[in-house]
């Protein structure tokens, strides 16, 4: 077996997104900087009896533009998003598999919930038409690792391949674990991120019963308001965000365009409660501190934080506290925004699109705002880049995600 450096530098060479704000990176980024909101009334099902009737749906997207129509029919909506975002990212990276070592190219695209549309539709078939009418593609379509598998089949990539499931931290964990594989020499290239399509009757019923979602149904565009005093719950979004990452040497050898370096990653657990974050921010602050240490940067060197910022009363308060714990006086100087104010919360895909945002922020020197920030909360008193984008030199970015189960993940990207 070849000897590979165990501490290689890792870079980002490709990006792809499917969101309510755009079906490619350019459209998505333009809408984000303009402060546009992708939240509207739910159209995927009749939500009139639900306490939350709004969401950030992906509208007008045809997966058959990037996916075999036969595979579209056989697979779940979450896989459509993840596969197509991966195809975009691979095309963006200009990775040529005829010249790559297929055994050293891997895929980890996670989903927090997986094939909810498939589960609900096939359960209806079972009840109405009996077990013999349930699709033979049901099980492959619903499982959360299938997107990774299909992307690998499409590419012919035989390297590390699986799905990660850690609720709303899923995509950040997927990117972080892929980063470790490239850095350690287990792989040269990883296609990584997350995909989600949980705007379904059953998923909404469950989240509404938890009273986790906003009930501001009359003002969909204003409902997601992270860090604002009047926030009342998250708004669900759907879509996917995928990166291509590879070792610096591999990228340079093939003449790839390098966007930035992925420099640090950490994962922790609150070990506190199944849904509520630790009120002292212990787990998240540890994740941020360890990610910074892994990247060998200080809090003062972070120019921008893409916060988890879900627009729930607990998360935003405790995330602010965790940032203050880690950053000290520097917490007052660092720019922070929650782009979920525009995209909604993509659950297991959130970290994927927010990784793309982090990379674009470094590339462009433009910081996306936190829209709908109108009434300051005394517990959330940092610089959340309110309502309007900001132009500023950004060399180093920290991005956070938290998931039910107390799971935390953080990534550090920096200018190469």
From TrEMBL:
Pathway: Lipid metabolism; fatty acid biosynthesis
Keywords recorded for this protein, A-Z: Acyltransferase, Cell inner membrane, Cell membrane, Fatty acid biosynthesis, Fatty acid metabolism, Lipid biosynthesis, Lipid metabolism, Membrane, Nodulation, Transferase, Transmembrane, Transmembrane helix
Enzyme class at the top of the EC tree: transferase
SMART domains in the record: PKS_KS
Main location: membrane
Alphabetized PANTHER family for the sequence: 3-OXOACYL-[ACYL-CARRIER-PROTEIN] SYNTHASE, POLYKETIDE SYNTHASE-RELATED
Protein name: 3-oxoacyl-[acyl-carrier-protein] synthase 2
Taxonomic placement: Bacteria, Pseudomonadati, Verrucomicrobiota, Opitutia, Opitutales
């Amino acid at each position: 077996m070849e000897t590979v450096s165990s501490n290689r530098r890792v870079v980002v060479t490709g990006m792809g997104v499917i969101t309510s704000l755009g079906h490619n990176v350019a459209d998505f980024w333009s809408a984000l900087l303009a402060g546009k909101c992708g939240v509207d009334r739910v159209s995927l099902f009749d939500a009139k009896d639900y306490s939350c009737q709004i969401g950030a749906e992906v509208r007008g997207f045809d997966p058959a533009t990037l996916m075999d129509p036969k595979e579209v029919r056989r697979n779940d909506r979450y896989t459509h998003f993840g596969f197509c975002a991966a195809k975009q990212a691979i095309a963006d990276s200009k990775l040529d598999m005829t010249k790559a070592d297929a055994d050293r190219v891997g895929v980890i695209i996670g989903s927090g919930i997986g094939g909810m549309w498939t589960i609900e539709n096939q359960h209806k078939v079972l009840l109405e038409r009996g077990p013999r009418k349930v699709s033979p593609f049901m099980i492959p379509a619903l499982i959360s690792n299938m997107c990774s598998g299909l992307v690998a089949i499409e590419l012919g990539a035989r390297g590390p391949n699986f799905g990660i499931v850690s609720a709303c931290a899923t995509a950040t964990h997927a990117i972080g674990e892929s980063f470790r594989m490239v850095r350690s020499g287990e792989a040269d290239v990883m296609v990584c991120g997350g995909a989600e399509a949980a705007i379904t009757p059953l998923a909404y019923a469950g989240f509404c019963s938890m009273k986790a979602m906003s009930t501001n149904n009359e003002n969909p565009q204003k409902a997601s308001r992270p860090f604002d005093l009047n926030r009342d719950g998250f708004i669900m979004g759907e879509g996917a965000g995928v990166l291509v990452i590879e070792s610096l040497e591999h990228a340079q050898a093939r003449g790839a365009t390098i966007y930035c370096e992925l420099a640090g990653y950490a994962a922790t657990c609150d070990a506190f409660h199944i849904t509520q974050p630790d009120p002292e921010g212990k787990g998240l602050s540890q994740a941020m501190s360890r990610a910074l240490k892994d990247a060998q940067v200080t809090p003062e060197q972070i120019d921008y934080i893409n916060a988890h910022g879900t627009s729930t009363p607990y998360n935003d308060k405790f995330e602010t506290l965790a940032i203050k714990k880690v950053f000290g006086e520097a917490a007052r100087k660092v720019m922070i925004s929650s782009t979920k104010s525009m995209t909604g919360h993509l659950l297991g895909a959130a970290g994927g699109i927010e990784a793309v945002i982090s990379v674009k922020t470094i590339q462009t020197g433009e910081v996306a705002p936190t829209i709908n920030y109108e009434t300051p909360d005394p517990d959330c008193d940092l610089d959340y880049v309110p309502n309007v984008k900001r132009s500023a030199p950004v060399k180093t970015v920290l991005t956070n995600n938290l998931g039910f189960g107390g799971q935390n993940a953080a990534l550090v990207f920096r200018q190469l």
